[in-house]
Amino acid sequence: xxxxxxTSQEEHYEQLLGLSGAWxxxxxxxxxxxxxxxxxxxxxxxxxxxxxxxxxxxxxxDHRDMREWRHLDTMQFETILRCEVPRCNCPEHxxxxxxxxxxxxxxxxxxxxxxxxxEVLQACSSVKAAAELMRLNWHxxxxxxxxxxxxxxxxxESSPIKHLGIDEKSFRRGHNYVSxxxxxxxxxxxxxxxxxxxAACDKLLGTLTAEQLKDVEAIAMDMxxxxxxxxxxxxxxxxxxxxxxxISKHLNEAIDKVRxxxxxxxxxxxxxxxxxxxxxxxxxxxxxxxxxxxRFNELQSLGLKVGRAYAIKETFDNFWDxxxxxxxxxxxxxWYGWARRSKLEPVKRVAKMIKEHFENIxxxxxxxxxxxxxxxxxxxxxxxxANARGFRNFENYRVAILxxxxxxxxxx
Length: 412
Ligand SMILES: [Zn+2]
Description:
Helices cover 45% and strands 19% of the residues.
């Protein structure tokens, strides 16, 4: 049963804010025109105050100027807490501002508002929409994210990580890259650094403890020299697993080169056989429409070079399904011979690259990892880039990625 009790507006807000002890709501002011509620909080000086450093009882010294904190709206009215926070004089630590129970240090928002903002920001795909909904500007959103990510990183335990991924993403237009370190098992971004050279890798892997580095069993990556070198140095006991999707991409690029060359040659004979066929060759057969499947079969019966390049690539795809290393090696040897004799230069080049890196490709069969998880972050990262007013500041970009993809404990 509800007990009907007349409480004043001040008491009502005190309860809503969960204030107790010496902190009291001294006034509630409602500004109808501005759609704003101001809640003034005072400190009962007859009660004891404690030093924020050591927690000992101290004497009152003075108070700070009036400060404001944005709180959760009250019935769509913007709600602001105001307080002249007292300062105490600790014999040991000197004059200190008391810690307020409703907000974190240095924040202009109450803890409840920050928690709410974090939830909205994580749920909204558009930062702009989330910010408008909460009537915050970009700068305020960024500050909330920064504090949240700092909290999350602080709290993150250095537990063992079995499978790592390292991958590059473009950052700004032109050749500007960032490198991402991911925990593939828990599909989370561990950190982001600028660049994709050795120094960038050192920095990334340096974020893990020596113990964590020792526990890593395998790291997925592209065939990028700086990444390989860093893995060999920092993770001498871990297997390198070159990413199967990157290898597929290289093979697809080879098919496309063959197609373009052949289309050019055919066009000279006024033959449009390969016109508008790019999609057909780069999409898996099962993903084609019925109409395209018919055309694909027709094209495949013409003994074209691109058809052969396609068959070579398609055959290689079987490699990923092998269980036994010996069988996989035999398969690859046969495949490699075929590709090398194909007289298709782009295919031969990729085959050679695969052979050179083969010992770090066959490791896939043991660990079955790829950077597909990181690729999964692409959409999120794309929208981060689209939402940002040109991330001139790398640190803001990093924070935004860790906020969305770091699986961090962000709440105050
Ligand atoms: Zn003290």
